Queue: 3 jobs
Job 1
Amino acid sequence: MLDKISQTKTQLETELNSISSLIDLDNFRIKFLTRKGIIAELFEELKSISIEIKPHIGKVLNELRTFAQNEFEKKNLEFESVKNKSQKIDLTIPGKKNWTGTKHPLTQTLGEVKRIFSQMGFQIAQGPEIEDDYHNFEALNFPPNHPARDMQDTFFISEKILLRTHTSPVQIRIMEKQSPPIRVIIPGRVYRNEAISSRSYCLFHQVEGLYVDEKVSFSELKGTLVAFVKQFYGSNLKYKFRPSFFPFTEPSAEMDISCFLCNGKGCRVCKFSGWLEILGCGMVHPNIFKNINVDTEKYSGYAFGMGIERIAMLLYGVDDIRLFYENDVRFLKQF
Ligand SMILES: [Zn+2]
């Protein structure tokens, strides 16, 4: 029996030396240390040994088992430390920053405009960007050869089809389908055939507003716009309305606000006037109501429109409109 134990120890040592992987180590464990392993078998044999020599052999066998277990643990620890070294985490390496995307500054500006007008009861409407001459010009009181058409250099697709030059044709499309009361804002992309520069681009965004109901007055228009600019730019700013001309409104006006960049003292952005033009507006021209058979005895309305790029440029101090369309991350991530 002692010989057997001694042979087992020799075998065990040989196999220990040849362990080179975790798989080898596990095979070693199964072979020697499990309940059906070689050492367990020896303990089984010990039961039939005569009582006189049993304690001595039992002691030797116990030593063998302890030795095997210790050696197994040692090897196991070696493998663990190798594994940890290869996966070691260097805590001194600077972290990688994950950039979070943000909304485009035009989307943010438009979102704020929509939010304010929605609170005042305006619904949001949309219309086609490819328009016909009738909706873009004629129905809006620009007769053929009207000089006002020159104000808008147009991308014509064919003689009567074009890329809309403003969002106003959507006013006509809404009034054709829906009878008053109508209270909508119409955000959208518009196109002009202009030389591209820091101040103008071939496309931009407008928000148009239209309110048609019984007894709509110019003072309501003013009240609505003043409420808007105060929410949008802050309640301290000054404002003024100047008479203007648009073919589709009568009377027409433009709204200026005191320059919030220089507080009205005069700066490069406000061209040293202290005022910024921000929108055009007026009472819907009776000819437009006639074109779409709205009863002018009963109904009146107002309309206004503003350019989102201009508002965003003023708000964020952007000095080149082209930046909005270049998708340069260095620009976009500032918002
Ligand atoms: Zn200024």
Job 2
Amino acid sequence: MVKVTILGAGITGMAIASQLPRDYEVTIVARNLPGDPDSTEWASPWAGAVFMGMDGSNLREQRMQLDAFASRWKIALNNPESSVRRVEMHDLMDFTPLEKVWYRDHLPGFHILSKDELPAGAPFGMAYQTIVLNPGVFLPWMRARLEKTGVKFLRMTVQSLSNLCGLGHDYLINAAGIGPRYLRNVMDQKVQEVRGQTILVKSDFDKIWIRRGKDYTYALGRQDGTTVLGGIKQFDNKVTSVDGELRNDIFRRIHENLPEAFPSADPLAFTVLRDIVGIRPQREGGLRIEKEILDGQKVVHAYGVAGGGYIFSWGLAREVCHLVEQFHFTSSNTFEPLVAVVKL
Ligand SMILES: Cc1cc2nc3c(=O)[nH]c(=O)nc-3n(C[C@H](O)[C@H](O)[C@H](O)COP(=O)(O)OP(=O)(O)OC[C@H]3O[C@@H](n4cnc5c(N)ncnc54)[C@H](O)[C@@H]3O)c2cc1C
């Protein structure tokens, strides 16, 4: 029996667990687990959790994103209890021209927005169908699905990947979000903490609306009577308290861009359900999906997803599975391809 340990119970670790063959013995080890009380120690619970193509992606990253999109599209159709929903997206770009939008021919219903669908001063926008989910529902749903297929969850905080040697696995997957910056035998200083702040409000806003460019402003209608308003990317900032000035600025930007849906910039005009702060696990130079033998353990690294853990999810997971497969092939000398029967 092949034994795999995954360090990390966020979207990345769980997506990987879902794509490993059913006959593998898989244990997810993490400090923070789905269903825990709120904690800013990890990113996955705080995501707006929408799909949008990530700017500047290379071909490998593009393939992973589209792969993940197709998988989540199926979950939206087959498992509405997961909170995954299909939804209309308005995606506005201040500086990127259409020719540079790599996903322009790949998403359902793709078309260019007319001038009267854009706020004043916005040069260009696109519409298409996308996917949104609510992490508060989705993460425990996914954990329960994995547990049904035999995946075990174990709470443990480690200082180094070497602390996990005693678990007796054949392969260790490092999907620890920000963790690799601090794990003693990884210490990847390219991992950066990128602060986000959003506001969850009561609202029937029925689409995903994002403007990227001068500012980073969005309203994510979750199809459940709530909308996430944002946003911001603050590099090398891990302050977890709410910034009041930034909060007011988000309300102002939302009102300026979407005056019909949000007719006032006054914070008191919104029904605020909660303020959210989360730290994205970014990596200078992009994702690290790579295998390595580290202190005697066969490790596959899977981190650096930045603001795209949900965007990469299943696509990234399949890349990781290929690396596990390569390890297995070279160590056993018998080629046993990973079977297509996966856990989710
Ligand atoms: C405001 C905001 C909005 C966002 N919106 C989106 C969006 O719309 N779409 C999208 O795709 N992404 C979005 N993101 C980004 C997304 O949240 C992250 O990319 C994703 O959650 C990262 O998942 P992960 O599993 O890699 O890491 P995490 O969720 O951080 O999980 C890391 C795991 O590793 C464990 N761990 C770490 N160190 C240790 C250790 N030393 N010992 C034991 N366990 C350890 C943790 O306990 C946790 O289980 C957003 C983020 C923020 C903050």
Job 3
Amino acid sequence: MAVQVAPETEVLRKEVQDRYTEVATKPDQTFHFHHGRPMAEILGYTMDQVDAMPPQAVESFAGVGNPFSVGSIQPGETVLDIGSGAGFDCFIAGEAVGPAGKVIGVDMTEAMLDKARDTAQQMGLDQVEFRHGLAEELPVPDGSVDVVISNGVINLCPDKYKAFEEVFRTLKPGGRLYLADIVVHKPVPDAAKANVDLWTA
Ligand SMILES: C[S@@+](CC[C@H](N)C(=O)[O-])C[C@H]1O[C@@H](n2cnc3c(N)ncnc32)[C@H](O)[C@@H]1O
């Protein structure tokens, strides 16, 4: 069943898609957030992890934390990455689950999906698959995932409650959520909520 969204939600999604299409296709550009290899270093990913990937997997990384600092991933597990971008965390998870496991990256931005699929093929990671979809309507069956990871995405979702409902729908009983995101401790002023640059950053 299609999710009904208010027009402002559609406008916001389009702005987010436009911004992250640029991150995918013009990663050398300056953005008002850190990205790429320097950000991966700041966030504590090991250089062994980063160097195991081709540059195109790293240059469009736009995470805000390191979901793997929350817990480990075991061989054979199924991992879902919500808002997988150019696939950086999916490739780390893909190495961890191994050929007997599965990693599903979901993203709504075609340019990110194209780049991620190309890199997965280059890396020979057949267990890593990318699907087009929304965090609020995941193209993943109920109770099918051992670990949900997400990095810098829920803050971009207009309907955060629905995004979390989807996390719990897709997790198996006893499944884990390794979440890296932005949290505010004070009410966000209306002027800031209306500023699309702040939404998409
Ligand atoms: C800040 S980037 C992070 C990408 C990736 N997790 C990483 O660490 O590099 C946000 C990504 O989430 C995607 N995204 C944002 N809102 C989304 C939504 N509601 N549903 C699916 N994807 C979304 C964007 O297209 C973009 O690729």
